[in-house]
Specification:
This protein is mostly helical. The chain has one domain. It has a two-stranded antiparallel ribbon. Helix 3 packs antiparallel against helix 4. The longest helix has 25 residues. The protein is globular. The two termini are 36 Å apart.
Amino acid sequence: MKKIREITDWIENNSTEIIENIDQESVDVYNFLKTEFRKSNINENYLFQFVFRSFYQIDNAGLTPEFKKEYFKILEQNRNERQFDFEKVLRRLYSFPNRKGQNTLQFSFATKMFNTIDDIMPIYDSEVAKMFSMSRPYQSEFEIKLDKYLDQLDKIQNGYEQIINQNLLPETIGLFDHVFKDNKLSEMKKLDFIFWSAGKIKTKFTKKGDDGFHTIEELDEIDRKIKTNAQHRV
């Protein structure tokens, strides 16, 4: 995994573009979902369900209505939980095949569920994982895949806590608060937005090869070569 200081240095150096890539609507929608979740039974709050599915792109994941109904049922049942049982939740959801008839481990959606309950837990997303030079596990076995996901999530959470405790992103978080005034977000949630956006910015510099996307280390080397070539032209 890439060292946290290397990651935060890159984010600080690209803070303006990273914050500009986050829109006010996303911050407002997140706060709307948190408010609606706190004040209502979301099994009966269909506006919440619609906005949640749209915001987190659940409707684009090839999942069935039965899966989505169970998802919100679990979210409501766990609203007071602070020790989130990932395995239990994911096994329940695993029993609902997707539209192709496949049983899938929807780890990212489980973290979005827990984050709605308590944003002390970061969201696992491919863009965030990219910033830590990690990729989604390829294993098919449920237990092995879940263990690898949980290990990655633990590394992300530890990284976020280190950033907060050591104040490693002062410029980026300061800019976030300046742009999104009175955002009502925890420091952990701000990092969710920042790292997701940073991953998107990194993707702009990514070229596909035969074996997929470059690693962040390869991207950094590409950036270095571009700057070196530019200096030579001067």
